[in-house]
Amino acid sequence: MTKWHDLLKEEGKPPDWPYPIRYEEEQEIETDVLVIGGGIAGCWAAISAARKGATVALVEKGDTIRSGAGGPGCDHWCNVPANPLSNVDPDEWAQHMAESMYSNGIGTQIQCREDYDALLEMEQMGGKLRDTGDEYVGAQGRDEKTKFMISPRYTRVHSYIPGSQKPRTFKSNPDQKLNNVVIRVWGTTFKPALKKECQRLGVKIYDRVMVTSLLTEGGIQGARVVGVTGFNNRTGEFMVFKSKAAVLAAAGNFSLWMLNTELAGYNTFRSRNSTGDGVAMAWRAGAALTLMERTGIMMLGTGYKHTWYGGAGDASYENVQLVDANGKKLPWPTQGWADAGAMRPTPEDMEKISRGVQTGEYALPFYGDFPAMPDIERRATWNLMLGEESTTKIIIDTYNKAGFDPSKHLLQNYNFIEGTSPSQWRTAGGGGPVLDWDLKSTLDGLYVAGEQTFSAGDHSYAAATGRYAGRKAADYSQQVGEPKISKEQVALEKARAYAPIKRSDGIEWKELHAGIARAMQYFCSEYKTESLLNMGLDTLRDIEENHVPRLYALDPHKLMRSLEDLSLLTHGQIILQASLARKASSRMLNFFRIDHPEVDPPEWNKFVTVKLENGKVKAGELPLTYWGNLKDNYEAHNKDYQGVCKG
User: Fold this and answer.
1) Secondary structure of the chain: what % helix, strand, coil (to 5)?
2) Are residues 435 and 517 located together in one domain of the fold?
């Protein structure tokens, strides 16, 4: 394959754009259900809606076969208490998970009740979830009857009550058996199977199309969603989708505080396409959002820091004993973690290790001792866990090509030698649209799934909520009249989206992105004040008024990147507005205001909401358990659902 820099050397100039340019052409598509985003949640939503008899169109910025955070694969199917080897009740497990402050009880309940059904459907589509070839006979957690591989990491008898070190026992598990709520799977087989099933069901897939806005009835902010606009990021063709219902599954935002395209690692381990487009378009349409003020410190690769998953000891490195430079074992647990989702030792254990480093008890650097593992466990970890996870698959492929042999070599761990990321390197913390028991947003016709929901979960959460939202959207589409699109709204959005191609100089997308990121680092970092937050809004407003009008793009790909910048800009403004609305600090939200120093005061233990109403920002609030009784409300809204948990 000819490389870009080789073409530059040979030709002395960039090659011509390889696709026909059709900027002024416009295409209109009509469908019952429109799915925005072709990741795990989006594919499941499309399949579910199509199975209900709806006509479905799926729009994906990349290529659906591998797009999204779970596109390359996954190794764990988490929080699946309905599986036949589980020893806990799905409703009890969901309640336990929802007890964590600022969780998403609705999404969690759906996951616990339905993700085993989704897993079995995945198997019918061609996904692999059992050790049918007996490759791992004898591995810990393998069940001979079902050939499921239960994860040894998530098997502790007791799970801890969130926010405390008090162990919780489950009424459904009086004998204190292992919980068995996580199954190890061959996740690299999943995404191709999902795309194939979409095609089999007649879902119209529009790859390489970036959605730029939600269309509302009459063009009115806050009205029913009746479609979207977008453009083909290879040809530039403008596209208008008219739909009776839409499912927003466009993932999160992982690039707002940091830009580094020149060094290896870029920003995070997530897709570069995850730039908060869904949140930005929902905001502009008038949807209420929550938890937008929550942020976290960026723990992953930035080019200046080693990728978190690249060193032994975290995430998928099951059963790997960590040792110091002298081969001394560390008190770093390799199995029996407290809960599904835990990836690191407790803070207390980390403090013990840190003190040991300082006193000389442990010598740096640390290593994952793969050669000391039993062969069957080493193969299960290296080939199944690391080889099937989206990020680690790429990493171990690189290690394998470099000559790394886990039966002979130790793998370095980067804890305690790199330090933590600077506090200004942050990432958005899982905010999203407010939703109800149908996974419907506050806008009629707009449903939400996967990582697009607030406090979203992992791969199986995305699958279960996508599957659920798809069927609810299909039901809605059969009950409403034909959508009516405002031509004026379409024309305004077309002008906004095409503005960068009307210019041939000014500033390009990298410059704009860097400016937005720097503004967020300066004014919305670890500690916040009203003054700093307002300065941040003023700075982003200045960028919007004085620099966005100079943004130019020379081809459709750069136009896509430019419009992603505008999503980032909007997302930053939302976060600043939500941060102003929460006038208290919160450890659970990693949110600290110097001018409101009290941490988690009872009167602020609530969801803060923000939305645009007639172009003005309006703040509101919701109780932390606004969804009510999880089991009762789930069953009341799913009386016709037939699954393994029914009854």
Assistant:
1) 35, 15, 50
2) no
In 3D, which of 643, 38, 619 has the Cα closest to residue 290? Answer: 619
Q: Torsion over CA of 334, 335, 341 and 347, rounded to 10 degrees? A: -60
DSSP, collapsed to helix, strand or coil, labels residue 627 as coil
Same domain, 498 and 600: yes
Tokens 């450890």 correspond to: 587
Indicate if the alpha-carbon torsion angle 393, 396, 398, 400 is positive or negative. Answer: negative
Where in the sequence is the domain holding 586, given as residue range(s)? Answer: 488-622
| pLDDT one-digit tens code per residue, 573-609 | 999 999 999 999 999 999 999 999 999 999 999 999 9
- State how far the Cα of 215 lies from the Cα of 208, in Å rounded to an integer: 20
Name the phi and psi angles at 290, rounded to 5. Answer: -140, 160
d(CA 274, CA 307): 18
The mean-pLDDT minimum among 58-72, 280-294, 444-458, 616-630 falls in 58-72
DSSP annotation string for 348-375? HHHHHHHHHHHHTSSPSSEEE-GGGS-H
Tens of pLDDT, residues 376-393: 999 999 999 999 987 788
**Res 441: pLDDT:** 98
Residue whose token pair is 């393998």: 142
Dihedral angle computed from the Cα positions of residues 578, 579, 585 and 586, in that order, rounded to the nearest 10 degrees: 50
The whole-angstrom separation of Cα 439 and Cα 525 is 31
- Structural domains of the chain, count: 4
* Token pair for 499: 């503005």
- Collapsing DSSP to helix, strand or coil, 603 comes out as helix
Task: Render pLDDT for 49-74 as a digit per residue (tens, 0 to 9).
Answer: 999 999 999 999 999 998 888 888 99
